[in-house]
Amino acid sequence: NSQQSFKISQELDSSYPDRLINEKDKLTKEEYNDRFNKLKEKQKKLADNGLYDLSKQKILDYSDTDSKALLVYLNDLEKKLGVFDNLLEKLELFTGILNERRFTFKRIQVDREKGFYFMTSREKELELNQLSSGEQHEVVLLYELIFNAKPNILVLIDEPEISLHITWQKEFLKDLLRIIKIQNIQVLIATHSPSIINDRWDLVYNLEKAQ
After folding, report:
1. Where are the domains of the chain?
2. Burial letters for 102-129: b for 16+ Cβ neighbours within 10 Å, e otherwise?
């Protein structure tokens, strides 16, 4: 993504003078503020996920005289940030599942330099091997599904309930369906745990009855 972002930035920056001269449209102050505020929110999200340096953020006040230039600037910034849309969606899903549903008294964070790392509620940094076996299992499984699974493949998961707390088991299928939607994959699960199935018995095929 960084290489793609650099390439797009170079292309846009080199063509900026020509596009500015040829631009016919202008922005109203309301349109500018609306789009600019949305971009600031996106920059904040990207920064929170280690994908953007907020020191690069420019605060430009609206001027009717410069409205054409501001329009080109916003169009370019949207394209530059748009490169990270897919990765941002995956990062937010990955960290969201772990922080909202899995971890207790700890959280996973993302840093531009360190990548993924773990913090306790007392702000003590942890290594992956310092997590419980169930937490390690979840981190690795979720990472593989969200970041490494290729579209249109069939993923086989055998007894995901092993090492998982009962509460995590009940959330497992719900989270998996979110991953399937983003990744466009198919998943076949073998399980003996009713908690994994939870309320989705419509997705179950009972092999014992089939025999």
Report:
1. 1-84, 132-210
2. bbeebbbbbeeeeebebeeeeeeeeeee
